[in-house]
Structure prediction request, 377 residues.
Amino acid sequence: MSAPRIFFYVQHLLGIGHIARASRIANALVRNGFDVTVVTGGLPVPGFPGDGIKTVTLPPVVASNVGFSGLADENGIAADAAFLERRRDLLLAAFEEAKPDVVIIEAFPFGRRQMRFELLPLLDAIEKASPRPKLLSSVRDILQENRKPGRDAETVDLVRNHFDTVLVHGDPAFVRLEDTFPLTSEIASKIRYTGIVAADPAPEPTERFDIIASAGGGAVGSDLLRAANAAAADLPKELRWLLISGPNLPEADFVALSQQAPDNVTLVRFRKDFPSLLRGARVSISQAGYNTVGDLLQTDCRAILIPFVAGGETEQTVRAERLQILGLADVLPESGLTAKMVAEAVETALAHPRKVSVPLDLDGANTTAQIIRAMTG
Prediction:
Protein backbone atom coordinates (compact mmCIF):
# COMPACT_ATOMS: atom_id res chain seq x y z
CA MET A 1 0.00 0.00 0.00
CA SER A 2 1.40 3.42 -0.98
CA ALA A 3 2.04 6.08 1.64
CA PRO A 4 -0.80 8.58 2.13
CA ARG A 5 -0.06 11.76 0.17
CA ILE A 6 -0.13 15.11 1.99
CA PHE A 7 -0.38 18.48 0.21
CA PHE A 8 0.61 21.18 2.72
CA TYR A 9 0.18 24.86 1.82
CA VAL A 10 1.96 27.49 3.92
CA GLN A 11 2.36 31.20 3.24
CA HIS A 12 4.66 33.31 5.41
CA LEU A 13 4.40 37.03 4.78
CA LEU A 14 6.63 38.80 7.31
CA GLY A 15 8.49 36.62 9.81
CA ILE A 16 9.46 32.95 9.62
CA GLY A 17 7.15 31.59 12.34
CA HIS A 18 4.57 30.08 10.00
CA ILE A 19 7.10 28.27 7.79
CA ALA A 20 9.04 27.05 10.84
CA ARG A 21 5.95 25.53 12.51
CA ALA A 22 4.71 24.01 9.24
CA SER A 23 8.14 22.53 8.60
CA ARG A 24 8.19 20.83 12.00
CA ILE A 25 4.82 19.30 11.23
CA ALA A 26 5.89 18.26 7.75
CA ASN A 27 9.02 16.58 9.10
CA ALA A 28 6.95 14.69 11.68
CA LEU A 29 4.62 13.52 8.91
CA VAL A 30 7.59 12.24 6.88
CA ARG A 31 8.93 10.40 9.93
CA ASN A 32 5.51 8.80 10.31
CA GLY A 33 5.52 7.43 6.78
CA PHE A 34 3.59 10.06 4.82
CA ASP A 35 4.47 11.30 1.33
CA VAL A 36 4.58 15.08 1.91
CA THR A 37 4.58 17.95 -0.56
CA VAL A 38 4.93 21.40 1.00
CA VAL A 39 3.84 24.38 -1.09
CA THR A 40 5.55 27.59 0.00
CA GLY A 41 4.69 31.09 -1.13
CA GLY A 42 7.04 33.36 0.79
CA LEU A 43 10.69 34.34 0.52
CA PRO A 44 13.07 31.37 0.83
CA VAL A 45 14.22 30.59 4.38
CA PRO A 46 17.41 28.52 4.75
CA GLY A 47 16.74 25.13 6.32
CA PHE A 48 13.00 25.07 5.69
CA PRO A 49 10.95 23.03 4.96
CA GLY A 50 13.77 20.50 5.46
CA ASP A 51 15.47 17.49 3.90
CA GLY A 52 13.37 14.70 2.41
CA ILE A 53 10.31 16.86 1.81
CA LYS A 54 9.02 17.55 -1.67
CA THR A 55 8.52 21.26 -2.21
CA VAL A 56 6.66 23.45 -4.66
CA THR A 57 7.83 27.04 -4.59
CA LEU A 58 5.32 29.59 -5.84
CA PRO A 59 6.51 33.04 -6.98
CA PRO A 60 7.03 34.64 -3.56
CA VAL A 61 4.91 37.37 -2.07
CA VAL A 62 5.50 39.35 1.13
CA ALA A 63 3.42 41.72 3.21
CA SER A 64 3.72 45.19 1.75
CA ASN A 65 3.24 46.71 5.23
CA VAL A 66 3.21 45.63 8.88
CA GLY A 67 -0.60 45.62 8.83
CA PHE A 68 -0.55 42.79 6.26
CA SER A 69 -3.10 44.66 4.14
CA GLY A 70 -1.28 44.30 0.81
CA LEU A 71 0.97 41.95 -1.14
CA ALA A 72 4.24 42.66 -2.90
CA ASP A 73 6.66 40.52 -4.89
CA GLU A 74 10.17 39.70 -3.70
CA ASN A 75 11.41 43.08 -4.98
CA GLY A 76 8.79 45.01 -3.02
CA ILE A 77 6.69 45.80 -6.09
CA ALA A 78 2.92 45.57 -5.57
CA ALA A 79 1.62 42.25 -6.88
CA ASP A 80 -0.68 42.92 -9.84
CA ALA A 81 -3.57 40.82 -11.17
CA ALA A 82 -1.42 38.98 -13.73
CA PHE A 83 1.11 38.00 -11.06
CA LEU A 84 -1.60 36.70 -8.73
CA GLU A 85 -3.36 34.78 -11.52
CA ARG A 86 -0.08 33.07 -12.38
CA ARG A 87 0.40 32.03 -8.76
CA ARG A 88 -3.15 30.69 -8.59
CA ASP A 89 -2.67 28.62 -11.73
CA LEU A 90 0.63 27.20 -10.48
CA LEU A 91 -0.98 26.23 -7.17
CA LEU A 92 -3.91 24.49 -8.86
CA ALA A 93 -1.56 22.66 -11.23
CA ALA A 94 0.53 21.46 -8.27
CA PHE A 95 -2.61 20.18 -6.55
CA GLU A 96 -3.72 18.28 -9.65
CA GLU A 97 -0.28 16.71 -10.02
CA ALA A 98 0.02 15.72 -6.35
CA LYS A 99 -3.38 13.98 -6.20
CA PRO A 100 -3.27 14.14 -2.39
CA ASP A 101 -5.22 12.14 0.14
CA VAL A 102 -5.05 15.05 2.60
CA VAL A 103 -4.71 18.80 2.05
CA ILE A 104 -3.49 20.96 4.93
CA ILE A 105 -3.82 24.74 4.67
CA GLU A 106 -1.85 26.67 7.24
CA ALA A 107 -3.68 29.59 8.94
CA PHE A 108 -6.59 29.88 6.49
CA PRO A 109 -9.50 30.54 6.90
CA PHE A 110 -8.66 32.01 10.33
CA GLY A 111 -5.94 34.13 8.73
CA ARG A 112 -4.28 34.78 5.38
CA ARG A 113 -7.32 36.46 3.86
CA GLN A 114 -4.93 38.13 1.43
CA MET A 115 -4.49 34.72 -0.21
CA ARG A 116 -8.16 34.17 -0.98
CA PHE A 117 -7.44 34.83 -4.67
CA GLU A 118 -5.77 31.39 -4.84
CA LEU A 119 -7.15 29.54 -1.82
CA LEU A 120 -10.84 29.84 -2.71
CA PRO A 121 -10.14 28.30 -6.14
CA LEU A 122 -8.14 25.58 -4.37
CA LEU A 123 -11.15 24.83 -2.13
CA ASP A 124 -13.31 24.52 -5.24
CA ALA A 125 -10.80 22.14 -6.83
CA ILE A 126 -10.77 20.02 -3.67
CA GLU A 127 -14.57 19.75 -3.67
CA LYS A 128 -14.56 18.68 -7.33
CA ALA A 129 -11.79 16.10 -6.94
CA SER A 130 -12.69 12.41 -7.04
CA PRO A 131 -11.92 11.00 -4.62
CA ARG A 132 -12.12 14.17 -2.55
CA PRO A 133 -9.13 14.57 -0.22
CA LYS A 134 -9.60 15.39 3.44
CA LEU A 135 -9.13 19.10 4.09
CA LEU A 136 -7.53 20.36 7.32
CA SER A 137 -6.86 23.84 8.64
CA SER A 138 -3.64 24.13 10.64
CA VAL A 139 -3.72 27.07 13.06
CA ARG A 140 -1.70 28.30 16.02
CA ASP A 141 -3.29 28.46 19.46
CA ILE A 142 -3.75 32.26 19.59
CA LEU A 143 -5.39 34.06 16.69
CA GLN A 144 -5.10 37.67 15.64
CA GLU A 145 -8.13 39.65 16.76
CA ASN A 146 -10.38 40.41 13.79
CA ARG A 147 -10.82 44.13 13.42
CA LYS A 148 -13.64 44.07 10.86
CA PRO A 149 -17.21 42.91 11.52
CA GLY A 150 -18.33 39.76 9.78
CA ARG A 151 -14.88 38.20 9.44
CA ASP A 152 -15.43 35.56 12.12
CA ALA A 153 -18.79 34.55 10.63
CA GLU A 154 -17.15 34.21 7.22
CA THR A 155 -14.50 31.96 8.76
CA VAL A 156 -17.18 29.77 10.33
CA ASP A 157 -18.96 29.39 6.98
CA LEU A 158 -15.76 28.32 5.24
CA VAL A 159 -14.94 25.79 7.95
CA ARG A 160 -18.45 24.34 7.92
CA ASN A 161 -18.66 24.09 4.15
CA HIS A 162 -15.16 22.88 3.28
CA PHE A 163 -12.97 21.73 6.16
CA ASP A 164 -13.07 18.31 7.81
CA THR A 165 -10.90 19.24 10.80
CA VAL A 166 -9.30 22.27 12.41
CA LEU A 167 -5.94 21.38 13.98
CA VAL A 168 -5.27 23.83 16.81
CA HIS A 169 -1.57 23.71 17.65
CA GLY A 170 -1.79 24.48 21.34
CA ASP A 171 -2.36 23.07 24.78
CA PRO A 172 -5.88 23.93 26.03
CA ALA A 173 -4.45 24.11 29.56
CA PHE A 174 -2.52 27.19 28.41
CA VAL A 175 -4.98 28.86 26.03
CA ARG A 176 -8.11 27.73 24.23
CA LEU A 177 -9.25 28.73 20.76
CA GLU A 178 -12.37 30.43 22.10
CA ASP A 179 -10.15 32.86 24.02
CA THR A 180 -9.29 34.60 20.73
CA PHE A 181 -11.97 33.28 18.34
CA PRO A 182 -15.42 34.11 19.75
CA LEU A 183 -17.42 31.82 17.43
CA THR A 184 -15.53 28.66 18.36
CA SER A 185 -18.68 26.97 19.69
CA GLU A 186 -20.12 26.96 16.16
CA ILE A 187 -17.32 24.72 14.86
CA ALA A 188 -16.49 22.88 18.08
CA SER A 189 -17.08 19.43 16.56
CA LYS A 190 -14.28 19.98 14.04
CA ILE A 191 -11.58 21.15 16.46
CA ARG A 192 -8.67 18.95 17.55
CA TYR A 193 -5.96 20.23 19.88
CA THR A 194 -2.52 18.87 19.08
CA GLY A 195 -0.35 20.44 21.75
CA ILE A 196 2.28 23.08 21.03
CA VAL A 197 4.44 22.36 17.99
CA ALA A 198 7.84 22.75 19.60
CA ALA A 199 11.16 21.61 18.21
CA ASP A 200 12.65 18.35 19.41
CA PRO A 201 14.53 18.78 22.72
CA ALA A 202 17.83 20.47 21.96
CA PRO A 203 21.22 18.99 22.88
CA GLU A 204 23.50 20.63 25.41
CA PRO A 205 25.03 23.85 24.07
CA THR A 206 28.56 23.89 22.68
CA GLU A 207 28.92 27.56 23.60
CA ARG A 208 27.40 29.54 26.47
CA PHE A 209 26.13 33.11 26.74
CA ASP A 210 24.57 34.78 29.77
CA ILE A 211 22.00 36.77 27.81
CA ILE A 212 20.57 36.06 24.35
CA ALA A 213 18.55 38.70 22.51
CA SER A 214 16.82 37.50 19.36
CA ALA A 215 14.50 39.04 16.78
CA GLY A 216 13.02 35.98 15.09
CA GLY A 217 13.12 36.43 11.32
CA GLY A 218 14.32 39.98 11.79
CA ALA A 219 11.85 41.72 9.52
CA VAL A 220 10.71 43.48 12.68
CA GLY A 221 12.48 43.70 16.02
CA SER A 222 15.25 46.19 15.29
CA ASP A 223 14.21 48.31 18.30
CA LEU A 224 14.57 45.28 20.55
CA LEU A 225 18.08 44.62 19.26
CA ARG A 226 19.19 48.25 19.57
CA ALA A 227 17.92 48.43 23.14
CA ALA A 228 19.63 45.16 24.07
CA ASN A 229 22.86 46.26 22.41
CA ALA A 230 22.88 49.49 24.41
CA ALA A 231 21.86 47.74 27.63
CA ALA A 232 24.88 45.45 27.34
CA ALA A 233 27.13 48.50 27.57
CA ASP A 234 25.46 49.59 30.82
CA LEU A 235 25.69 46.23 32.62
CA PRO A 236 28.76 44.40 33.97
CA LYS A 237 31.26 43.67 31.22
CA GLU A 238 31.77 40.07 32.32
CA LEU A 239 28.28 39.21 31.09
CA ARG A 240 28.43 37.56 27.67
CA TRP A 241 25.71 38.64 25.25
CA LEU A 242 24.57 37.10 21.96
CA LEU A 243 22.39 39.15 19.61
CA ILE A 244 20.67 37.16 16.84
CA SER A 245 19.27 39.58 14.28
CA GLY A 246 17.40 37.15 12.03
CA PRO A 247 18.02 36.76 8.29
CA ASN A 248 15.59 39.52 7.28
CA LEU A 249 16.99 42.44 9.29
CA PRO A 250 17.97 45.15 6.77
CA GLU A 251 21.71 45.17 6.11
CA ALA A 252 22.07 48.82 7.16
CA ASP A 253 20.56 48.01 10.57
CA PHE A 254 22.86 45.01 10.97
CA VAL A 255 25.94 47.08 10.16
CA ALA A 256 24.88 49.82 12.59
CA LEU A 257 24.41 47.30 15.39
CA SER A 258 27.79 45.76 14.66
CA GLN A 259 29.53 49.14 14.82
CA GLN A 260 27.86 49.99 18.14
CA ALA A 261 28.29 46.59 19.82
CA PRO A 262 30.39 46.50 23.02
CA ASP A 263 33.23 43.95 23.26
CA ASN A 264 31.09 41.55 25.29
CA VAL A 265 28.42 41.32 22.56
CA THR A 266 28.49 38.83 19.71
CA LEU A 267 26.20 39.74 16.81
CA VAL A 268 25.07 37.14 14.25
CA ARG A 269 22.22 36.86 11.77
CA PHE A 270 21.35 33.25 12.50
CA ARG A 271 22.33 30.38 14.78
CA LYS A 272 21.09 26.96 13.83
CA ASP A 273 21.73 25.86 17.41
CA PHE A 274 19.53 28.61 18.90
CA PRO A 275 17.42 26.17 21.00
CA SER A 276 20.61 24.66 22.44
CA LEU A 277 22.01 28.09 23.24
CA LEU A 278 18.83 28.94 25.15
CA ARG A 279 19.43 25.89 27.35
CA GLY A 280 22.73 27.40 28.44
CA ALA A 281 21.58 30.99 28.80
CA ARG A 282 20.45 32.69 31.99
CA VAL A 283 18.19 35.27 30.30
CA SER A 284 16.46 35.50 26.93
CA ILE A 285 15.16 38.75 25.41
CA SER A 286 12.81 38.22 22.49
CA GLN A 287 9.45 38.87 20.97
CA ALA A 288 6.65 36.50 21.96
CA GLY A 289 6.30 34.53 18.75
CA TYR A 290 4.94 31.00 18.80
CA ASN A 291 8.19 29.21 17.93
CA THR A 292 10.47 31.25 20.18
CA VAL A 293 8.17 30.64 23.14
CA GLY A 294 8.09 26.93 22.29
CA ASP A 295 11.88 26.89 22.51
CA LEU A 296 11.86 28.84 25.78
CA LEU A 297 9.38 26.46 27.41
CA GLN A 298 11.94 23.67 27.06
CA THR A 299 14.58 25.54 29.07
CA ASP A 300 15.12 27.04 32.52
CA CYS A 301 16.06 30.36 30.92
CA ARG A 302 14.36 33.46 32.38
CA ALA A 303 12.37 35.11 29.57
CA ILE A 304 11.90 38.82 28.92
CA LEU A 305 9.24 39.15 26.24
CA ILE A 306 8.60 42.23 24.08
CA PRO A 307 5.48 41.39 22.07
CA PHE A 308 5.11 42.64 18.51
CA VAL A 309 2.15 45.05 18.33
CA ALA A 310 2.70 47.08 15.14
CA GLY A 311 -0.23 47.22 12.74
CA GLY A 312 -2.68 46.31 15.50
CA GLU A 313 -1.21 42.84 16.14
CA THR A 314 -2.63 41.23 19.29
CA GLU A 315 -1.46 37.60 19.21
CA GLN A 316 1.94 38.03 20.84
CA THR A 317 0.54 40.23 23.60
CA VAL A 318 -1.97 37.53 24.58
CA ARG A 319 0.78 34.90 24.65
CA ALA A 320 3.18 37.04 26.65
CA GLU A 321 0.55 37.98 29.24
CA ARG A 322 -0.43 34.31 29.72
CA LEU A 323 3.20 33.40 30.33
CA GLN A 324 3.60 36.31 32.75
CA ILE A 325 0.58 35.11 34.76
CA LEU A 326 2.19 31.65 34.99
CA GLY A 327 5.44 33.17 36.24
CA LEU A 328 7.28 32.09 33.09
CA ALA A 329 8.15 35.50 31.66
CA ASP A 330 8.52 39.21 32.29
CA VAL A 331 6.97 41.56 29.73
CA LEU A 332 8.16 44.90 28.36
CA PRO A 333 6.28 47.14 25.91
CA GLU A 334 7.46 47.44 22.31
CA SER A 335 6.44 51.08 22.15
CA GLY A 336 8.90 53.36 23.88
CA LEU A 337 11.38 50.57 24.63
CA THR A 338 14.66 51.91 26.01
CA ALA A 339 18.05 50.48 26.93
CA LYS A 340 17.38 51.44 30.56
CA MET A 341 14.17 49.37 30.61
CA VAL A 342 15.97 46.36 29.15
CA ALA A 343 18.93 46.71 31.52
CA GLU A 344 16.66 46.87 34.57
CA ALA A 345 14.68 43.84 33.40
CA VAL A 346 17.90 41.88 32.85
CA GLU A 347 19.16 42.77 36.33
CA THR A 348 15.87 41.56 37.83
CA ALA A 349 15.97 38.35 35.80
CA LEU A 350 19.55 37.59 36.78
CA ALA A 351 18.67 38.14 40.44
CA HIS A 352 15.59 35.91 40.27
CA PRO A 353 16.19 32.82 38.12
CA ARG A 354 13.09 31.04 36.88
CA LYS A 355 11.89 28.41 39.33
CA VAL A 356 8.35 27.73 38.16
CA SER A 357 7.81 24.78 35.85
CA VAL A 358 4.45 24.40 34.13
CA PRO A 359 3.93 21.08 32.31
CA LEU A 360 2.56 21.96 28.88
CA ASP A 361 2.14 19.59 25.94
CA LEU A 362 4.97 20.39 23.50
CA ASP A 363 4.63 17.35 21.22
CA GLY A 364 2.23 18.93 18.74
CA ALA A 365 4.04 17.84 15.56
CA ASN A 366 3.90 14.13 16.37
CA THR A 367 0.34 14.36 17.65
CA THR A 368 -0.67 16.03 14.38
CA ALA A 369 0.82 13.10 12.47
CA GLN A 370 -1.10 10.64 14.66
CA ILE A 371 -4.39 12.49 14.09
CA ILE A 372 -3.87 12.44 10.32
CA ARG A 373 -2.88 8.75 10.44
CA ALA A 374 -6.18 7.96 12.12
CA MET A 375 -8.04 9.93 9.43
CA THR A 376 -6.34 8.10 6.56
CA GLY A 377 -6.60 4.63 8.01
